[in-house]
TrEMBL record, chain A:
Domain of life: Bacteria
Protein name from the UniProt record: 3-isopropylmalate dehydratase small subunit
HAMAP family xrefs: LeuD_type1
Reaction catalyzed: (2R,3S)-3-isopropylmalate = (2S)-2-isopropylmalate
Species whose genome carries this gene: Galbibacter pacificus
One Pfam family linked to the record: Aconitase_C
Gene that encodes it: leuD
Higher taxonomy: Bacteria, Pseudomonadati, Bacteroidota, Flavobacteriia, Flavobacteriales
Enzyme class label: lyase
InterPro entries, sorted: 3-IsopropMal_deHydase_ssu, Aconitase/3IPM_dehydase_swvl, AconitaseA/IPMdHydase_ssu_swvl, IPMI_Swivel, LeuD
Enzyme Commission number(s): 4.2.1.33
GO terms, molecular function: 3-isopropylmalate dehydratase activity
UniProtKB/TrEMBL annotation, chain B:
Family: Belongs to the aconitase/IPM isomerase family. LeuC type 1 subfamily.
NCBIfam families referenced in this protein's UniProt entry, alphabetically: leuC, PRK05478.1, PRK12466.1
Lineage: Bacteria, Pseudomonadati, Bacteroidota, Flavobacteriia, Flavobacteriales
Pathway(s) per entry: Amino-acid biosynthesis; L-leucine biosynthesis; L-leucine from 3-methyl-2-oxobutanoate: step 2/4
InterPro entries documented for this protein: 3-IsopropMal_deHydase_lsu, Acnase/IPM_dHydase_lsu_aba_1/3, Acoase/IPM_deHydtase_lsu_aba, Aconitase_4Fe-4S_dom, IPM_dehydratase_rel_enz, IPMI_cat
Cofactor(s) required for function per UniProt: [4Fe-4S] cluster
Functional summary from the UniProt entry: Catalyzes the isomerization between 2-isopropylmalate and 3-isopropylmalate, via the formation of 2-isopropylmaleate.
Domain called Aconitase/3-isopropylmalate dehydratase large subunit alpha/beta/alpha: residue spans: 7-450
Name of the molecule in the record: 3-isopropylmalate dehydratase large subunit
Annotated gene: leuC
């Protein structure tokens, strides 16, 4: 897994609530057997209408660029498909900002080096309006110090992250290595079970 | 202080507490299917890690399989390759597979309970969010991503932080025509689509105590639709009687020993929850959804609420519906009875009881998709298949089908489908398809009338529900 420490990037606003994983990557694109190439179909049915690019959708609007997606409340609800995280990273996103994330998506994102940053609803609203007013604005995400800030504004907020997951992201470690290294404990647990 | 059902099962599976971090949780059963497992097998092979406990894994093909002519080669080449990859991976790694054509094949959350693989007190995972279904047995069961599928392959464990606890109590007597699906759609409509995020839910109260296992599975199945990773119901005599005698259930003295243990699992009287909600059964009515998440539900006789909110309006625009509109009387051209929520024998019995002697409306395409080969067999044996066919319904073979539209079973753009599945997301049942979630009874009544009707008025003379 790629390491993550800090990121300064412009951001793309997507102020829709309850964006589910069927919107992020529709089921008909889940037939692949590798992790590659899902970015092409990210938000497929919002990006394309009747086989053509939908000019109204933010990813087709070149005014907005960047590796940070700023989305409405409850991002990533629905299916457990990790393909949603693969589609977002393959497209080039490194950070998703929202006021709330669905559990399974959050775990999937973290397992792929994609950082979900949960901010307060007020900060989310402010960020969205600043980015819309000035699409050139940079957003700074500092994982080590656990804060997110918007350059040239007073917007700055700290965010929560599990200490273990933070360590994994900063070092590029993943859970498999850790679990396999605990095999002795797992076998001892199995041997100790009575029912 | 007392412990909850969830605490008891969770705590008995903790292998290790990582300092200032998550816990290593042991997983008893791991269910896999063709869509979310290939990348996990690849991951292990790339790292040269063997499967740790292959005998605790069971595989089936369900999401991406045709529901017609399952004995013939799959037409869609990508689907064919994905299903073949599952067979190849299971062969290579020695995993039990109930693939297409096997008498045990079926939707993973229908197949495992009916075979007795699902048992109280277990921890179970699957790369599918509706794994919450198995919580109906007093099991900690939840959906995982593909990275986690690989972790369980490698270690039979996951790294997790213990979720918070929520109890939802529903007491009283359900009105005639109100099914378990209505109960869970009602709860989600009341609490909202993200109310359960970060929680594991326990459903308590006499409404759930009096429910069949099939009904409990329908309820627990949709826990994820309010954001909860899982939902549980305390195991009781109904649970033990359901498990007893099934293919992989413990037998004889072993079974009795297990039952003694399972009886210790229900929540202690002095246990506390992080959050509690209570509802009155008398307030629950047959439900339908009008929007693009399962929290957007109303009683079948109610009007769509008015809300000045961009996401809400976007949702209604997609559905082609207006604020204040009634769904009652709305013409419907597609009906789907199936999915891991409602494709068990009881669901089809109820639908058939209503349909018996009637004909589907001319405008309706009605699809019946049993949850498993075993359910399909039972439908035939009980004469239910003939009821559906005589009424003009189309019988298919088992699979996830039009619930997620991965195979050919899709609803055309712009069309409404009254569906017994679990998600009404945009495009879920096909690009542009408009899903209205409902119970099997409401779906059956819709198919007969060709429009949404108040089922409580329709069933006064029926004995069944």
């Amino acid at each position: 897994m790629e390491k993550f420490t800090t990121l300064t990037s412009r951001a793309i606003p997507l102020p829709i609530e309850n964006i589910d994983t069927d919107q992020i990557i529709p089921a008909r694109f889940l037939k692949a057997i590798s992790k590659a190439g899902f970015g092409e179909n990210l938000f497929r049915d919002w990006r394309y209408k009747d086989g053509k690019e939908n000019a109204d959708f933010v990813l087709n609007n070149t005014t907005y660029q960047g590796k940070i997606l700023v989305a409405g409340d409850n991002f990533g609800c629905g299916s457990s498909r990790e393909h949603a995280a693969w589609a977002l990273t393959d497209y080039g996103f490194k950070v998703i900002v929202s006021s709330y994330f669905a559990d399974i998506f959050k775990g999937n994102a973290l397992n792929n080096g994609l950082l979900p940053v949960q901010v307060s609803p007020e900060v989310l609203k402010e960020m969205l309006s600043v980015i819309k007013a000035n699409p050139q604005t940079n957003v700074i995400v500092n994982l080590e110090e656990q804060y997110i800030a918007v350059e040239g504004t007073g917007i700055k907020e700290s965010f929560e992250i599990d200490a273990y997951k933070k360590m994994c992201l900063m070092n590029g470690y993943d859970d498999i290595d850790f679990l396999v290294s605990n095999k002795d404990k797992i076998e001892a647990f199995e041997a100790s079970r009575t029912i | 202080m007392g412990k909850t059902l969830f605490d008891k099962v969770w705590d008995s599976h903790v292998v290790h507490q990582v300092e200032n971090g998550p816990q290593i949780l042991y997983i008893d059963k791991h269910l896999i299917h063709e869509v979310t497992s290939p990348q996990a097998f690849n991951e292990l092979e790339e790292r040269n890690i063997p499967l740790f406990r292959k005998e605790q894994i069971v595989a089936t093909a369900d999401h991406n399989v045709p529901t017609k002519d399952q004995h013939l080669p799959i037409q869609d080449l990508l689907s064919k390759k994905q299903v073949e990859m599952l067979t190849e991976n299971c062969d290579k790694h020695g995993v039990t597979l109930y693939g297409l054509g096997h008498p045990y094949q079926g939707i993973v959350h229908v197949m495992a309970p009916e075979l007795g693989i699902t048992q109280p007190g277990m921890t179970m995972v699957c790369g599918d969010s509706h794994t919450s279904t198995h919580g109906a047995f007093g099991t900690i069961a939840f959906g995982i991503g593909t990275s986690q599928v690989a972790q369980v392959f490698a270690s039979q464990c996951l790294l997790l932080s213990k979720p918070k606890s929520m109890r939802i109590t529903v007491n009283g007597k359900l009105k005639k025509g109100v099914l378990p699906k209505d109960v869970i759609l009602y709860i989600i409509a009341q609490l909202g689509t993200n109310s359960g995020t970060g929680y594991f839910v326990e459903y308590a109260g006499d409404v759930f105590e009096n429910m069949t296992m099939e009904g409990r599975m329908t309820v627990c199945n949709m826990s994820i639709e309010m954001g909860a990773r899982g939902g549980m119901i305390a195991p009781d005599e109904t649970t033990f009687n359901y498990v007893k005698g099934r293919e992989f259930a413990p037998k004889g003295e072993d079974f009795n020993k297990k039952v003694s243990y399972w009886k210790t699992l229900p929540t202690d009287a002095d246990a506390t929850f992080d959050k509690e909600y209570t509802f009155d059964a008398a307030d629950i009515a047959p439900m339908v959804t009008y929007g693009t998440n399962p929290g957007m539900g109303i009683k079948i006789t109610e009007r769509i609420p008015s809300k000045d909110d961009v996401s809400f309006e976007k949702s209604l625009e997609y559905m082609g519906l207006q604020k204040g509109e009634k769904l009652l009387g709305k013409q419907i051209n597609y009906v789907f009875i199936g999915s891991c929520t409602n494709s068990r024998i009881e669901d089809f019995r109820i639908a058939a009881e209503y349909i018996k002697g009637k004909q589907k409306a001319a405008n309706v395409n009605a699809l019946i998709v049993p949850g498993s080969q075993q359910v399909a067999q039972q439908i035939k044996e009980e004469g239910i298949q003939a009821v559906f066919e005589d009424a003009g319904f189309e019988m298919r073979q088992s699979g996830c089908s039009a619930c997620l539209g991965m195979n050919e079973d899709k609803i055309p753009a712009g069309e409404y489908c009254v569906s017994t599945s679990n998600r009404n997301f945009e495009g879920r049942q096909g690009q542009g398809a408009r899903t209205i979630l409902a119970s099997p009874l409401v779906a059956a009544a819709t198919a007969i009338a060709g429009k949404i009707v108040d089922v409580t008025e329709e069933i006064k003379e029926l004995e069944l529900v």
